[in-house]
Amino acid sequence: MIKFSVSSFRFSVRSIRSLKKSWLGFVGPALAVILACSSPSEQEFSGPELIGRLGCLACHGLGGSAAAGGFYLDGIGSRLSRPALKESLTHPRRRRPGVKMPSYAYVRPGELEELVGYLERLK
Ligand code: HEC
Question: What's the sign of the alpha-carbon dihedral 59, 61, 66, 70?
Answer without folding.
Answer: positive
